[in-house]
Amino acid sequence: MGNFTLGRYLPLDSPIHRMDPRAKIMGMLLMLIAIFIPSGWIGYGIIFVCAAGTILLARLQFGFILKSMRPMMIMMIFLFIINCLVIHTGEPLFVIGPVIIYRDAIFQTLYIVVRLLLMIMITTCLTATTKPLDMTLGIEDLLKPFEKIHVPAHEIAMLISIALRFIPDLIEETQRIIKAQESRGVDMKEGKMQERIMAILSLIVPLFVSAFQRAEDLANAMEARGYAPGEKRTRYKVLKMAGRDYTLLVCCTAMLAGMIWLSRMS
Questions:
Q1: Pair 95, 199 in one domain
Q2: Prediction pTM value
Q3: Which end of the chain is less congested by CB atoms within 10 angstroms, N or C?
Q4: At 100, is the secondary structure helix, strand, or coil?
Q5: 134 burial class (0-12, 13-18, 19+ CB within 10 angstroms)?
Q6: Domains of the chain: total
């Protein structure tokens, strides 16, 4: 699977793994809202400490979390270049040829990068500690109140769960196709930029064919097991909230309130 870890569940025994998926999903949403509140570096530091503490409590390795951040490095570098070319406010820091790098360009890029890293930490922690089936049940329960306005809660939960489940498989399939093409003489790491881009584009057709084949196999398997969208379904597993789940929600709500207070004080 390489460096891509989002959507990968790690079967460990930890307090976070044993929590109700609804509490973890709601906690994640509250944390994501807190990240987008302009609470300054102090607020981001508090969120980072809480996220790191959750990762340690879940018995996850920080190397596992860092692997999920590596695919974002190219986007972060591209974002930094764009901000340096567009933002011309603040104190000039240094000059690179005809380009002047301003203070606001650096700090705005850092703000966005820190937010992205915190989001990746939190979402990876959620997917690594929650089984795909539990994720489906949790999302479905959270969306049930919207069924009164004809929102298909079960179908939406199923789509999200399937998407998260097949992200690692698609990444693994991509790597398999790359190795197969390299064995046939296609060089994707060296050569001119145009040649490397064309080599990467050649992955699209076999990857789409593989994805559609997987989707067809999954649809046939679901139909063979009698799955019918929109029908009422019974559950073998019933979710129940415990004291630790309510504690998590209270802590996340308190953090969100603290970020709002910090943003008003700054």
A1: no
A2: 0.74
A3: C
A4: strand
A5: buried
A6: 2
